[in-house]
Design goal:
CATH class of the largest domain: Alpha Beta
Shape: flat
Number of helices: 8
Distance between the termini: 51 Å
Number of domains: 2
Oligomer: single chain
Strand order of the largest sheet: 9-8-10-11-12-13
CATH topology of the largest domain: Cytidine Deaminase, domain 2
Order of helices and strands: EEEEHEEHHEHHEEHEHEHEEE
Strand content: 25-35%
Helix content: 25-40%
Radius of gyration: 19 Å
Length: about 280
């Protein structure tokens, strides 16, 4: 599906200090997207109608439905007769058997970042530990990652209303970036893009424009990255989970200033910087 379909023009009245005028403005589309396995809907997300195969693959990986892209036999994006889109995902035999067993335990899907779960234990499933001992970034690379991501956000530049997730590799910059009206969706799309390209999660840092919640840490760990960098702030649970999972959490990046909440030893600071 073309990215152009993720945008539409809306009529508005612009009220400014110099006066009022009628003018169009580009706004992002928000579409119900169903993720279906073996013909049964597992989750319905409100999402931007772009990069949907990446979305399906990334969601399947970060939600633990598959352990690798090889377990997916086919992804088909089907336009619904109404307003929505149905992504039909066909799993290979072993993965399908595992998913069917999981689905029998579930009460039903919900349209949020914790999809198809029925219990608190399921929602709080353990986050796998990530080995980030061999990966470090300098302070300048942290701020560079955010700056470079801002250059790869065409939907945001047009609308000011979407989130972005990118993958930063030292010496290469942002090697992949995806946008969506939902922050979880953007990260899932990024996960799918990295898996399709064969990019190892341990080779770089996840960079996001949103706040960092527990689910964002879950998905970062599923990608295999030991680094997440955000423009906004983290939740307390995200900080605790990052600490336990071995993920360096950097947030509130503003120009050349930022806060490091976990595993700060992996960020090398300039000689004149100091920790109070």
């Amino acid at each position: 599906m073309s990215e152009r379909r993720a945008l539409t023009s809306a009529r508005r009245v612009a009220v400014r200090s110099v006066g009022t005028s009628a003018a169009p403005r580009q706004v992002p589309e928000e579409t119900p997207v169903a993720l279906s396995y073996a013909g049964t809907t597992h989750a319905v997300m409100m999402a931007s109608p772009a990069d949907l195969e990446d979305f399906a693959l990334g969601f399947s990986l970060t939600e633990g439905i598959v352990s690798s892209s090889a377990e997916i036999a086919e992804i088909a994006v089907v336009e619904d007769a109404g307003e929505g889109i149905d992504i039909q995902i066909r799993l290979r035999d072993t993965a399908n058997t595992r998913f069917e067993a999981r689905r029998r335990r579930l009460a039903g899907p919900v349209g949020c970042g914790l999809c198809g779960i029925e219990s608190i234990d399921e929602a709080m499933r353990s986050v796998r530990a990530v080995d980030g001992r061999q990966f470090e970034l300098s302070a300048s690379q942290v701020t560079e990652a955010v700056r470079l991501l801002s250059l790869q956000q065409p939907l945001h530049r047009a609308t000011g209303a979407v989130h972005a997730a990118g993958f930063f590799m030292p010496g290469r910059g942002i090697v992949a970036a995806r946008e969506d009206v939902g922050r979880h969706n953007a990260l899932d799309k990024l996960a799918g893009a990295l898996a399709k390209a064969g990019v190892a999660g341990a080779s770089g840092a996840v960079v996001v424009t949103s706040r960092i919640s527990f689910e964002m840490i879950q998905k970062t760990a599923a990608i295999g990255s030991a680094f997440i960098i955000a423009v906004s702030a983290p939740t307390a649970l995200a900080i605790r989970t990052s600490q336990e999972a071995g993920i360096t959490l950097v947030a509130l990046v503003r120009g050349d200033e930022f806060d490091i909440f976990t595993h700060a030893d992996r960020v090398t600071l300039e000689a004149n910087a100091h920790v109070a």
